[in-house]
Amino acid sequence: MPDETTQATGTYRSGRPDGRYASTLGFAHHLMKAAPPRLAFDPTMDAAGFADWQKAIRSKALELMAFPPDVPAQPAPNRVWRESRDGYSLEKWEIYPEPASVVPILVLVPDGVTAQQPAPAVICIPGSSGTKEFLAGEPESHPGLKVPAHADKNDMARQFARAGLVAVATDHPGSGEALERVGDQLLGGATRDKLCRDLLYLGRSFTGVSTFHQACILNWLKSFSWVDADRLALAGHSLGTEAALALAAIDTDVAAVVLNDFIHGKRPQDIALAKTMDGERVFFTGGMWHTVPGMWQWLDLPDLVAAIAPRPVLGTEGGTAAALPLVERAYELAGDPEAFQYHHFPEFDAPEKRPFDCEPMPEGLPVDEYYTRAHTNPAEHYFKGHLAVPWLCERFGMARGRA
Fold first, then answer.
1. pTM score, two decimals?
2. Which sign, positive or negative, has the C-alpha torsion 266, 267, 271, 272?
3. 212-249 per-residue burial string, b: 16 or more CB within 10 A, e: under 16
């Protein structure tokens, strides 16, 4: 039974005998519930139907990411500098994905990696406030950039490099070194909102541009003799999981994926969350940087996870009772149920700690209650290297690596 606060701030209700909505937001909420994605995974399909569905997802994901068509030949990536670190070298590169665009990245190359001893590679994509320097355990590129929480655990690229993998650390579009600057000052505030709005007007999206950048990096990695092109992985943290999922669904050369977030549908999340948490302001459930035009007409994030099967996927922060069984079913259809693994947060790691597993997700939930029912803990949302690094090393037939 919802309490008074939930009743006051909860979901949209018509209040009319005909069930129509005077509120256009209420109408949009109704649309979300009434029109599930056309390519939503169907657990009753057979193996042949599943293979056809995967092809449809791959095609639609590529369309939704709106990669620029017919990009003319661009300059080859350029190495800006190289420095030695303990157990690996740190290289800064620039790539040039399309005209007028430059994307700086950091590449961590373990000692001993050569054309005669090539190593697997992993592209590391940060959370919303993370940077490539943060992932590499390096000082930020500008003193105005804040160090996000859990700095001692989120050095994803450095952890993978110390385990023997070539690790590429990237920035999000408009973040880190790509953040707009005036002189020595960073332009914060609404700059990402403006970037997202401008891209949406152009028929593109923040996620689509990020995914395209990772695709260019992935193709570039394949050209190196010292990289094992059969062992290429993506590792996304939080916001970074969205580009990782899209690219893995599109490009079957991605051999494994680490998802450092809880596995859930964005559309069901928007349906479940209350429209306001204080009774006054409409609650905005996600920034425009999550927005891909038309996506919910066709698919949601769990569909992308399912489409990757049977390639190995690790979820390090559990997921919802609705999403996880669907992905498990996809891996059964693909013939390798063990290739999909996930770990719940400790407070949700046993059935008796998940009392809502058998209940549908209610609507009108305060965000904290949604997180509890979705089995996630935002305060402990950091890269779970103790799970991800040995898992990926094992998938790629490597020793557990250096500490």
1. 0.94
2. negative
3. bbbbbbbebbeebeebbbebbbbbbbbbbbbbbbbbbb
Residue with tokens 């500098």: 81
- For the stretch 31-86, pLDDT in tens is 999 989 999 999 999 999 999 999 999 999 999 999 999 999 999 999 999 999 99
CA-to-CA distance for 246 and 211, rounded, in angstroms? 7
100: left (phi over 0), alpha (psi -120 to 50) or beta: left
| 12 located within any domain | no
Number of domains in the chain: 1
Query: Residue 33 falls within a domain, yes or no?
Result: no
For 156, other C-beta atoms within 10 Å of its C-beta total 32
CB distance 236 to 221 below 8 Å: no
Q: Is omega for the bond preceding 310 within 30 degrees of 0, making it cis?
A: yes
Q: Is the pLDDT of residue 246 over 90?
A: yes
Integer Cα distance of 389 and 383 in angstroms: 10
CATH code for the domain in which residue 188 is found: 3.40.50.1820
What is the distance between the alpha carbons of residues 104 and 175, in angstroms, rounded to a whole number? 11
